[in-house]
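Filed under: proteins

Residues; backbone shape codes:
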Amino acid sequence: MVVMKMKFPFEKRVKLAQGLWLLSWFATVAGAITFTLGCILKTELRRRAEVMDNSDIHVVPNTLMIVGLASLGINYFASKICQDALDTERFPRWKTILKPYFAVSCFFTVLMLLAVIMSYAMKGSLESSLKGGLRNGIRFYKDTDTPGRCFQKQNIDRLQMEFQCCGNSDFRDWFEVQWISNRYLDFSTKEVKDRIKSNVDGRYLVDGVPFSCCNPSSPRPCIQYQLTNNSAHYNYEYQTEELNIYLRGCREALVNYYMGLMNTIGAGVLSVFLLQGSVLVSLRFLQTAMEAVTGEENTEMETEGYLLEKSVKETIMEYLDPVLKFLLLTNQVEEGTTAAADPATA
């Protein structure tokens, strides 16, 4: 059953080839933009690698870069095919190439759609990665003398100031870790001794936050120590007062930033996907319309073009059968090699 059959007079075929040539170059530029967007997102993610527990989220920019490069090649060949479609003597040389060309093109176009879906669906993975990474970043904040962690304090301070956030979930996360290094503590003082003895882990815990949590927009000088002690500050109520530190956690701030970036990129790549799909559909109509002219004396005759020669299911199986047979053959060869190498089986 032929899908989407259309009639193509000579003038319509010429216009289709010319219009498709121009469209393919637009799609080539769009492919370059897709690659660039992938590079931008990759760079932004790498900038905050120290506060990410894993790199699973990098699958999105990696996929964008791959499909962007593939799109450059796909649309370059599409423009060459359109040029040769205007010459009935040059077009037949593409006949053997077009079937694998469409298979590869459809694969990367679907991959582009998957990249768009992933850019919206990876929020959970991003959040869990940031949760673990920020937790470790706060825990190692004080280790400025430890190799590999020397810049952890600087990175966390810059992060909190840039994104106007404090802690992982909120500022209270700093109450649960010792973020002041032992080298800056006077262990001969009663206060330090009492605080260390007050918890089983022997850590110096305070209800305070680093200076980078201070909100410069607050009219009051920053209160970063004894945040929960009302009597330590004049005219201060911990429960009711709007604190002059950032209240939003850095995990929330970073998730909002990266999801906003990925959603914007996803919308752009979706437009590129639609453009790429238009190129492939139009090229398929041009191919089938031109094949009817091949070998005919009257090259200006009216021809029929179609999207699929068979039903969607039959077409998919036609492309999958060689792949499945290859995989089956590979599996049989591996089993035969294993059996030959195993003396017990022999």
Observations:
- The chain is about 60% helix and 0% strand.
- Helices lie at 10-47, 59-85, 95-121, 123-139, 152-163, 190-197, 250-291, 312-341.
